[in-house]
Specification:
18% of the residues lie in helices and 40% in strands. By secondary structure, it is of the alpha+beta class. The strands form 2 sheets. A 13-stranded antiparallel beta sheet has the order 1-2-5-6-7-8-9-10-11-12-13-14-15, with no helix packed on it. Strands 3-4 form a two-stranded antiparallel ribbon.
Length: 257
């Protein structure tokens, strides 16, 4: 083979390699250049997937641990904190986080399980007011649905407002419902494996508690200070229970009975 033929063959191979590389790439680009035309994939593997509006506003994302957003941005201010889990986040029309799903689980060297799953929805500009949660640690676990109140002011506004406050002032603000979440209702299981429903008033004080297990089933009504004043139920001997209690927790006979 002379050098001219060799050079011609090399040039042909280069051209062939170029064409076979560019044609699939061009086809892929053409497919993505038509956003209204559905594109079907049999299977796709990604580390993070962003669902966006046409203007680029993120509406939802799914991510592994490494690419999961750290912290949260509200009113243009970022509050940084670690999020060591994979999951999914939801975003409102403003492009701010408004809920999400995280999950995980592992065993240590001794076979002890540490696991959990959490689906929540946030009040606008605030934290989660609805949360479905499962948590397992140290051989026990609990699972339930929680409804909470959140302040009207945004998380970032409250961060600025209370950044120089003392621990006592912050604690008082939490008690008054001005800072952080205040649980109003929990329905689920407890670490002790009881079924429970706990209802609180606007101050976060528990007013009604229903608990059921193999020992008993009781419904407690509490006063404004959280003290049990009335108990209705069935005890471990399968006997009905009706107790009226005073402020010190002692049994009393109600007026008129």
């Amino acid at each position: 083979m002379d050098t001219r033929n060799l050079a011609r063959d090399v040039k042909f191979l280069k051209l062939y390699a170029l064409v076979t590389t560019l044609l699939p790439l061009a086809a892929l680009l053409c497919a993505f250049a038509k956003p209204d035309k559905p594109v079907r994939f049999g299977e796709i593997s990604v580390e993070r997937l962003n669902l966006v509006e046409r203007d680029g506003t993120v509406k939802m994302l799914m991510s592994n641990k490494a690419r999961f957003p750290q912290g949260v941005t509200i009113d243009g201010k970022h509050l940084d904190y670690k999020r060591p889990h994979p999951g999914m986040l939801f975003y409102n029309d403003k492009g701010e986080e408004c809920g999400g799903l995280i999950f995980g689980g592992e065993k240590d060297a001794n076979g002890k399980v540490s696991a959990g799953g959490h689906l929540s929805f946030d009040r606008f500009g605030q934290d989660q007011v609805i949360a479905l949660n499962y948590q397992e640690q140290g051989g026990g676990y609990k699972a339930g649905l929680t409804f909470s109140d959140a302040p009207e002011e945004s998380i970032t506004a409250l961060e600025e407002k209370y950044k120089t406050a003392t621990p006592e002032q912050k604690q008082q603000a939490v008690k008054e419902g001005k800072l952080g979440l205040m649980r109003r209702l929990y329905v689920g299981t407890t670490a002790g494996r009881s079924s429970a429903m706990i209802m609180a008033d606007q101050r976060g004080e528990t007013r009604v508690m229903l608990v059921a297990n193999t020992e008993q089933s009781t419904l407690d009504f509490k006063d404004a200070q959280g003290r049990t004043r009335l108990t209705i139920g069935v005890d471990k001997n399968n006997q009905p229970v009706l107790r009226f209690l005073d402020e010190q927790g002692k049994d009393v006979k109600p007026a008129g009975l």
